Amino acid sequence: MAPSRFRLAGSRLALLFVFGIAALLVACGGDDEDAQVQSDSATSAPAQAEDEQSQAEQQAEEAELPVNDGDEPAQDQAQEEDGQQSADAGVVGELTDSDDGDFVLGFAEPSEAYRPLAEALIESGVFETVITALNNQLLLPRNIDVVFQECGTINAFYDPESVSIAVCYELVEWLVQNFSQIEEDPQVAFGRGLDSTVFILNHEVGHALINVLQLPTTGREEDAVDELASILVMESFPGGETTVLNAAQSFFLSGAQVTDLSELDFADEHSLDQQRFFGISCLVFGRNPDGNPQLLELGILSEDRASLCVQEYQDKLDAWSVLLLFEGDEEEALNDIPDEDYLLVDEGDFVLGFIEPESDALRPLAERLLATEDFTVVTQALNDTVGLPADLPITFAECGLINAFYDPELRAITMCYELFDFIQTQFANAGLDDDDAFARALDANIFIFFHEVGHALIHVLELPTTGKEEDAVDDLATIVLIESFDGGDQAVLNAAQSFFLSGSEITDLSELDFADEHSLDQQRFFSISCLVYGSNPGGHADLVEAGTLSDDRAALCEEEYPQKLDAWLVLLDFALKAEEESAG
After folding, report:
1. Which of 137, 148, 214, 275 is the most buried (most CB within 10 A)?
2. pLDDT, tens digit, 9 for 90 and up, residues 198-207
3. What is the pTM of this model?
């Protein structure tokens, strides 16, 4: 492969400042008034709700979000406290013109079957409280409608064309029914269903913010907004951890209904419900380990997984604090985003090394790798492109296990010969001759090389990444190879194929697989293939023709690749060397 310069776009960091978002994370609510189900259409419902919301904001006082502790339904726990409305406190001074928008809540007229549910949702006052809190936390450039409505399907979604969020009555009913399977008291089941709906509403708010504010999110967007929903609820409202755990359990109940996973499940843009259960539970434990020992005692989180959750929650809180300026002090938050001055202290390189293996069986492989010079070429291309504050070694070595890893304490990457040998053997077992198996394993290991470089960059440069970090660095490895090297797309597809082969060897998935910080190998195969297709749909139409990607998934891939490319260009903008500097 002949390396070439990154084809860089202009800086997109300015987009973060145009709207000057500031989140105070103070729950501000108003006096709830009795309301009736709207008799107008779904499009006119938000207008009336906006008038009611405006009146509520004039009387806003600090309030607790109604949450369910398992003993009483959420709507019975709503309570008000004396306080002062603080919507103006989050304005980022000269960085924004004004707060031109709000989330506007409405309840569309349902059929008779859903009228009692719609009335119960309105009477609870829960969602008026949530929406008022969001409006007192966030500055928006325009209104975003939030409409509870009958959809004909179990769903909630954000529509970027209409800039609106829909929460379907069918979804709320389904959530309550799921909890009714484990709760004898229908009021408790309703309360827990409400908690889950609060979480899902904040999840859709995340999609809206990413779209409207053009936020540079990484990893699966669905995972990213699960994180944001968890953070918003837990950091904003007393008892928020219980609300989030109820939402997590709703995913557990949903996942338990699926007995056989298909390729469509692995190819979906969402993580599996079982994974969402463990991922959300990890964030709750990470925020407050002492307050949630049951997650360990019940075996929901293993000791090893739980040990990662504390840092994981802090990392995600920090990332969203930078992206949305959650700190409240806008100057402090803005200083968390590095700028071009960082390159003034560019004093380091990635330093490649090969340690001769002690095992005679691995020595020929080590010699063959060294002779290819491919890793020397990609390391030089990397050093021509990215600045570092200090040298960072990348060492090929015998490890005693099949692995590759970045060590944050040593600030060093290790590529194990055993991993290369394992992947080469997989391709050989698939019927490829020695040369072809080696070539494909080489491509897969170059992908893994950049995957580990991604971990190193996130740590050393303190990049605010969202979603699973493992998915984020898969995205980065894919983008670097496609954008920087001739034939890089084929190298990425060979890497994807190695994940497919690994996933094919697993016949039964366990809870440990769903709880792992990595996506499943089958998911990585489809996600990476999706990005390759999205980078060049015409050149990779075979991925759709062969059935690797469905038509619906492929359509999303065309949007996903440029979004991921832009996100990484924003995040790495301050560390990317100018073209003339790298050429010199």
Report:
1. 148
2. 999 999 999 9
3. 0.80
